[in-house]
Amino acid sequence: MSTTRQRKTGQTEDHLPPKREGQVTRDVKPPLANMSFSTFIYCLAGVGMLWLALSAYRVAQLKADAGGWFNLAMGKRPDTGEPMKGNPNLGGV
């Protein structure tokens, strides 16, 4: 004898919700669809220039802490006894 209950009605349509009257989903434009391609390129170039300027500033700070380009390239620094200001491994010292 089976322990599961089965419905006696043979019509499954009686148990379904009513049909939708409108559209299920709405049309959505893709991202940046209202922006022209040249504007997108100019924005991309602007962000790249900002990143380049920040990177150049950071390298200049590291160069000043190391005591010159040669010391920066060789990984040396002047022996001042204090940690480098631009060293990210020291955590804000």
What's the topology here?
Layout: H1 37-66, H2 69-74
Structure, explained:
With 93 residues, this protein is an all-alpha fold. It has a domain of 42 residues. 39% of the residues lie in helices and 0% in strands. It is elongated, with a radius of gyration of 33 Å. The mean pLDDT is 79.
H-E string: HH
Radius of gyration: 33 Å
Helix content: 25-40%
Oligomer state equals single chain
Coarse morphology: elongated
Provide the structure class: mainly alpha
- What is the CA-CA span between the terminal residues? 77 Å
Give the strand content: under 5%
Largest sheet: none
Instruction: Give the integer mean of the pLDDT values.
Output: 79
Quickly list its features.
93 residues; mainly alpha; 2 helices
Can I get a quick summary?
This protein is mostly helical and 93 residues long. It has helices spanning 37-66, 69-74. It is 39% helix and 0% strand.
